[in-house]
Structures are given as C-alpha cells and as structure tokens.
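Case study.
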Amino acid sequence: MNTAARTAVRSRFTLSRDVMQAFYRLLGVVLLCAILATLSDVFLTTNNILNVLRQSALLFLMASGLTLVILTAGLDLSIGANVALSACLAASVIKITGSPLLGMATGIGCGAVIGLANGILVTALRIPSFIATYGMMWMLTGVTYYYMAGETIHGFPPEFRQLGSGYLLGVPMPVYVMVLFLLIGGLFAQRTVWGQQIYAIGANPVTARLSGVPVERRLVLVYAVSGAMAGLASLIILARINSAQGDIGEDLTLPAIAAVLVGGTSLFGGSGTVAGTLIGALILTLVLNAMNLLQINSSWQPLVTGVIVLLAVWIDTRARRIGE
Amino acid sequence: MSTRGFSLAALPVARVPGVAIVLVVLCAGFGVTSPGFATPANIANILTQSTILLLLALPMTVIIMTEGLDLSIGAVLTFASIVLAVTVIATGSPTLAFLAALGVGLCFGLGNGVLIAVFDIPPFITTLGTLGIAQGLSLLVTDGQSVVGIPRSIEQIYSGTAAGIPFPIIIAALAYFITHALLYHTRFGTYVFALGGNREALRVAGISVRGMLIRVYVFGGLMAGFAALLMTARLNSAHPTAGIGMEFDAIAAVAVGGTSFERGNGWLLGTLLGVIAVGVLRNGLNLLAVPSSVQVACIGALVIVALFIDGMRAER
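After joint prediction, the assembly is written out as follows.
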C-alpha cells in the first residue's frame, strides 16, 4: 500500500517533470526558429517551413520506432541500412508489378523482417543490441549494394508519389503520416499494457521478468516495430525523391538516434516519450536546415550530429546522477 | 585442485577448436573450390593483407575485454591516413607525417577515453559520436577527393621486405607481441582483465578505473594511427572512405576469436586466428569473384555462427 502510494506520487512527479522537459524543448524549438528567422530571409517562407515539416516527419517516423527500442535500453543502428534495402526492394516491386500497394507491403514487410532478425539476434543469441544491429547494418548495406549493382530505379506512378510529395489542404502528406503515428505510438506506449511493459523492461529487466513480463517477446516486438517503421520511412523517401539507390538511407541513422536522445528519451532505458521524439526530430531538422540555409558545407553534418548525440547523452547522464 | 580444474572447458584451450575449426573449414572449402587459393604466394598475400586488420583488432580485443567498444576506430584510421598523406605532401617528411597520424589517433583515443571514463557516456554511443566527427573531418579536409602524390618512401613501408619477410608482417608481429606482453605480463594487463570482470575490485584496490579506461582507448587510437601508416602505404593514397567499416571487420575478428562481449574475458591468440579467418574469408571470396558487398554479409554470418557456438558452450 505504502509502496503503491509512493509509486503513484512518483509517477505523477515524473509526469510533471516530463511535461516541464517537453516545455523546455518546445521553448528550444521556438528559440531556434527565432534565431533562424533573423539569420536567414528564406527561413520563414512557406516553402521552407513545409520543407522542414516534411523532413522532420521523415526523421520522426524512423526515430519513433527507435524510441521504443531505446526505451528498453537497447539500440537499433541498422535503421538507415534498413531504409536502403526496403526502399530498393519496394522500388523493384513497384516497377515489376506496377502496383504501389504491393510495393508498399514489400517495403514495410522487408523492414519488419529485418527488425525481427535483430530481435532474434538480441534475445535468442544474447548479442548486445548495439553490436547485433551494427553487424546487421553492414550486412544490409552489402546486400543492398549487391542487389542494386550501382543501378538507380526511378519513375514511380503518380498516386504512389503522392505519399511523399503530395499535399492535402496545403500540408504535405508525410506530415499527416507523422501525426497518425504520433497518436498510435503515444497511445501504445502510454495507454497499453504492452507499452508499459516496454518501459518496465527498460527500467529494470530483472524486475520486469519477475513481474511476469514476457521480456523476450516484447523485445522482439520492439525491434520488429523499429524495422517496420524504417520500412515505412523508406516508402516516404522513395515517393518523395522518385528514385532508389543503394546509398539512400545511409546518412539517416545518426540523426534519428540524435532525435530520440534530444527528445529526452534516456539511452539507459525506461524513460522518455514518443512525443518527445517528435520535438527532437524538429530540433534536429531545424539545425540541419539552418546549416543548409546558411550554406555551410554539408560535410559538417555528420560532425555536428555526432556532437549533438554526445551532448544529449552527457546531459542525460548528469541528470541521472543528480537523480540518484 | 578439484577435477573440475582439469576440465577442458575451464581452460582457454577450449576455445582453440572453435576458431580453428572455422579456419580449417574455410581453408578446406576455398582450397577445393579455387585452385589459386592454396599457393604460397596467395597465403603470403592473405597474411600481408591481414596486417592492417590485426593492428585494429588487437586494441579492439583489449577494449571489448573492458566491456567497451570502439566503433570510431575505422573512421579514426581514415582521418589519420588523410592527415598523414596531407602532411607528407606538404612537408616532405615521412617521420613528421607519421607523428601527425599518431597524434590524430592519440587525440581521438584520449577524447573517447575521457568521454567514457570521466563523463560516463556509454562506449558505443561515445564512439558512434566520434565516428561521426572523424568522418566529418575527413570529408572536410579532402572535400570528398582522394589525396594522391605520396612519395615512394611511404609506399615502401608496405611493399618492402627485410630478410625476405614483408615489412607489414614484421610490424604486425611486433604489435602482436607487444600487446601480448602488455596484456599477460604487466600490471596494465591484469587491470584490463579486472576492468571487465571485476571493476569493483580495482576500485577497492585503489587503482584509478578512469585512468585505466582512458589508457585503453588511447591504446586503440594510437594503433589506429599505426594502421594508418600501413593503409596509406598500401593504397599509395588517402581517401575519405578508405577505412570506413574496418571497425566491423575488427569487431568480427575479435568475436570470431572468442572474446566475449559480456564477461570481460578475452584471448589474444584467438583474435589473431579470428583476423586470419576474416582475411581467408575475404581472400577466398575474392578469388571466387564474390563482390565485396556480399563479403560483408558473409563476415556477419561468420560472426553469428561463432557467437552461436560461443553461446552453446556457455550454456553447457
């Protein structure tokens, strides 16, 4: 009874702390926008704002699945390579069959199967997730390069391209997809038993197991979801740029990880939200957008993203130490 | 001593069959399928080509033994190679260039070590961040282009021989024996084993865990600097993507060699055999004209097989 009460108090406290942190991050977004608006004339144009929204939608889709993985104190380094293979397979299927629906099923299915394989490596073979998914990343890259053999597949039916470059009521389609998955992801994580079990695994896998959580099955699920979201993201990229190449998602893994961490999800598991990741994705996209607008050499991007990741984890580590 | 003390499973020897079986199977398989494989020239070729990987896999073994990881080692190797090439072209002094490459390795090793030990950031995310930094710097310095026009004196470090033995093999052998001596015959080595197995004991004994961790990552950075010399000499140029992914081969070699990611126990000879196994696999697949992209997938499969055997052993 006493512990239950304390847990209730603590969870209410955590919630309010989460809300405050989200507030600070939103403040950060507003500040970034204000700075960008003063630095560049182009920033506040409708075109650029829609572009930022579309970019952050893409980053969010990859990062939302990853958020669940990181909530379990795991990591999925294969999502960028997953995007590449899923996009290329989906592109082939659309080209061969002419059916966007079959292509979309292929893309998401391919992503999910890759995620499933990650989950099996992590649970059945007990390989630490960052090593298993890192190996998976290189294997997928190899398979994709071999499959594409330097070729490009381009030119997809207009109805499929709508998914990436279309508008509805003046808002880009990917933004609707983003909002849809923000709702699904948020509800799943906060309002379902499975979602809460994922938090429990991240907070303390031993306690979770003793409390009857099927840890292995939930972990496999989480990696499969992360893979499927990468597959979905690959479709949006495909529809947007209208071509598939072997190196399509290569540069997206680090920004996606950065988005999750900047969004307040702890690398050590058990705390964070999908909504936070959306803010993280916005911040990351704004930073990269700023570098584009200010015409900073794109070679700076991996460097800046790397520094952002390190800073975010450092802050997280400090916060935890203070919390203890 | 109980009879358990004599059980084979308790000795590191129990690992010999694992890596050795993998090696024998690979050699037999390629020996049968490609006639060019089992020639003295090709075997010398495999060993020479494996030297760069060994220089990375040795510190990787030590790092993984401390329950750490260095994902940045390939990108640091690349950046060090670029700095080496740029310096030797600008100054004409190979010595200065080599020192510059070592300096790059030292800086990144120190950076990794400090972030991990002092700032308490998990090793895989630290080195993922520094990987991005090293990669960005490589692209910035070269603008994505190859650095060419390196003097012959550098190239000879890879192609030259002493008493009929190629220089790279001598360098790699030296590196192996030095690491072996460090790991098994110095206090540093004992502490490394303790860092993975029993960190608390080190603390209680009054040893600075932070200092030890920093040293381990500095060792990794310096070895990447050494490897940069060999790689630049081999390619006779430096390219911003030349060493990308080398950390994957290094981690694979360590894993195939039987060093555990969790229990903090490692085996340096196993890593040597693992490096040769990866080298044999790459070489054999090359002879069979398998594209390098597929080779990566094969190495991944090799690791999974090795870890699977490792896992089965652990359960038994």
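Observations recorded in class. The CA atoms of residues 5 and 11 of chain A lie 10 Å apart. The beta strands of chain A are 153-154, 167-168, 171-172, 243-244. We will return to this complex in the next lecture.
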